[in-house]
Specification:
heterodimer; A: 411 residues; alpha/beta; eight-stranded mixed sheet; two-stranded antiparallel sheet; B: 213 residues
């Protein structure tokens, strides 16, 4: 990345408090990690019909082998980012899948070249509504075109092309990331050998659309939102975005996990305040979740990316028959769901598995007994780790990807 | 559908798996219904280069299979075979599970719809020990291999070797091959004597072929 690109990014990213630097800092002694920007020279045609010039910010782990057969693409969730296994420069926290990706971990950076890009429409270095519209010199705001899951995947394909990778060894992701995995598998079936959609669905349910709509309304009702042009007012619609996050966060947990973690415990251990302060621990927790979120996520990005999820209905792209989306597929699938996930319940995963069965695809379906709700896929779930590791290893045994040591380093 | 649920035999009787595997041509596509811990799938994948998939009722076993790299779905022989397309597999195996299905006849029809061949292994309920238990003790048999009492058993449709032969005839299904096993799970040499087969055959493995149209 050139100095001018870094400067440009820093100016783009001021709302995310980002400071992009060319880094090549190993996460651990053995994992090679790089942060980078892919600037596509050609615009992308979006589903809404508009053309868009864009860039993607991405991290990689490990080394691409000589025949470029060991690449795995990781797709992140709505509020995820490219820092799947690297320390986030914004929060300072470990990557959201740092237990999954790394040296000797299920998605092994000693063996695979792992790519994770911030989605199109995101706010962590990839082009989104907070980016500067080159035509106006101002942030896009709501003039940014509506994007879809398929658009996000198209941009990822350009990135994979940029690496001259013909076939990905695997595409893996949870929640919205799982939607992207399904889009890859259905619409670009010759570009991947295996797919692991986790805690996801072939469509965004009415209930999920409803929750996200409440979140979006909260953002848009915040006077600091300014019709999406808060950038010019040098302000963030903090309250609205925090409420949106609080609502969504409830859907990511289960009743059991909430009760176990907080019960009706009082925040300060003593008495009710007879007022509207955060008496209960759960209130305090949610407020904290909401307020810490506004520091790392752009409100308009939240509108756009959640909208992309709402629009996702894979079967609708195939005349309403999900199985036709997968006809003739040679991809090996491992679908994973969690019993207490009510945002993306196991039933939705079974629908995908049954559609794959209908075309005699090679599909495994793992349903993990967990009390952690939708968030389980981000947590320490040994059964998930074991399933992913076993699935990837056996896929590797079948396809015999060449050793990383014989590979060339990607420049 | 699991081996354990259909468990008449808890010990690792792998002889029957080997005999069953011998019926399957290398490089074919196989679905193992009630694949349990995936022993059969492993055998087929490793030694015969077979594209082997499994269907298993118990989720914990499914998860274990996937961890070991096998392609396995959670599902039920009675209700989930309709999800597979016609002729998706060369062989569809139902190993010691037929007795736990609600409609064995429909299951066999489904197996032969989605596969060219169906392979079924099952315990013979016409064995003399079973008859002895009924005749002299007036009790439903509970033995080392039939571990459940009548009120708790998931095994609701026991059959004899002759029963299955007649069912196949009724369904116009050709029995291509038939292996009878003795109590030590070895291949029995009594295969040519129908009455003896029914009395002394402990298990049987049938290779069935789709009826010609």
């Amino acid at each position: 990345m050139s100095e001018s690109q870094i400067l440009k990014l820093n100016s783009l990213a001021k709302f995310g408090k980002l400071a992009f630097q060319k880094q090549s800092t190993p996460k651990s002694k053995t994992m090679k990690q790089q942060s980078n920007i892919f600037i596509d020279e050609n615009p992308i045609k979006l589903d809404c019909g508009q053309m868009l010039n864009y860039q993607l910010s991405y991290d990689t782990y490990g080394t691409l082998n000589a025949d470029k057969s060991n690449a795995i693409l990781i797709c992140h969730a709505l509020t995820g980012d490219q820092y799947a296994a690297s320390k986030s420069p914004i929060t300072g926290k470990d990557g959201w899948w740092s237990k999954m990706i790394g040296s000797g971990l299920p998605i092994d950076s000693d063996k695979y070249f792992i790519i994770c890009a911030n989605v199109l429409g995101g706010c962590l270095g990839s082009t989104g509504p907070a980016s500067i519209n080159p035509e106006t010199g101002q942030a896009y705001g709501l003039s940014f075109p509506l994007i879809t899951i398929s658009d996000m995947v198209h941009a990822q394909i350009r990135l994979v092309d940029h690496f001259a990778i013909e076939t990905l060894f695997s595409v893996i992701g949870g929640s919205m990331g799982g939607m992207m995995v399904l889009d890859w598998a259905a619409n670009h079936k010759h570009r991947l050998l295996s797919a692991i959609p986790i805690a996801t669905a072939s469509l965004h349910s009415s209930q999920n659309i409803a929750f996200y709509e409440v979140g979006r309304q909260a953002i848009m009702a915040d006077p600091d939102w300014h019709g999406g042009d808060y950038y010019q007012h040098k302000i963030i619609p903090k309250k609205g975005l925090a409420v949106a996050r609080m609502i969504a966060h409830i859907t990511y947990m289960s009743e059991v996990s909430l009760h176990k973690k907080f019960g009706r415990n009082l925040q300060n251990g003593k008495d009710l305040s007879y007022g509207f302060d955060a008496d209960f621990q759960i209130e305090s927790y949610l407020r904290h979740q909401g307020m810490s979120f506004v520091d790392r996520f752009d409100a308009n990005s939240y509108l756009y990316v959640s909208r992309a999820m709402d629009y996702f209905d894979l079967a609708a792209q195939y005349d309403g028959n999900l199985y036709t989306a997968f006809e003739g597929t040679d991809i090996r699938f491992c679908i994973i769901s969690f019993t207490s996930d009510w945002a993306f319940p196991p039933e939705g995963s079974k629908v995908i598995a049954n559609a794959l069965n209908r075309v005699a695809a090679n599909v495994s379906y793992v349903e993990i007994d967990s009390p952690s709700g939708h968030d389980a896929f981000l947590l320490d779930e040994p059964e998930m780790f074991n399933a992913v590791a076993g699935f990837l290893t056996s896929t590797d045994e079948k396809h015999q990807i060449s050793n990383i040591n014989n590979g060339a380093k990607h420049q | 559908m699991s081996h354990q649920q259909a468990s008449m035999s808890q010990q690792p009787v792998r002889t029957d798996l080997l005999l069953l595997a011998e019926m399957i041509k290398p490089n074919s596509r196989v679905l193992d219904i009630g694949c349990g811990n995936g022993d059969m799938l492993k055998l087929l994948t490793k030694h015969k280069n077979i594209d082997a998939r499994g269907l298993e009722l118990e989720q914990s076993k499914v998860n274990k299979c996937v961890t070991e790299g096998l392609s396995v779905m959670q599902g039920n022989a009675d209700t989930d075979l309709i999800n597979y397309p016609d002729n998706a597999f060369d062989y569809v195996i139902l190993s010691k599970t037929i007795q736990a299905t609600h409609r064995p006849d429909l299951v066999i029809e489904q197996m032969l719809r989605i596969g060219k061949y169906a392979i079924m292994s099952f315990h013979n309920f016409g064995h003399w020990k079973v008859i002895r238990s009924l005749l002299f003790k007036s009790r439903m048999p509970v033995t080392k291999k039939l571990t459940y009492s009548w009120y708790e058993t998931p095994n609701i449709h026991f059959c004899t070797i002759r029963d299955l032969s007649l069912l196949c005839k009724g369904l116009n299904v050709e029995v291509v091959d038939k292996i009878i096993l003795n109590q030590r799970a070895q291949k029995s040499s009594i295969s040519n004597w129908p009455i003896l087969v029914n009395l002394f055959g402990d298990q049987a493995i049938f290779l069935l072929k789709k009826p010609e149209k």
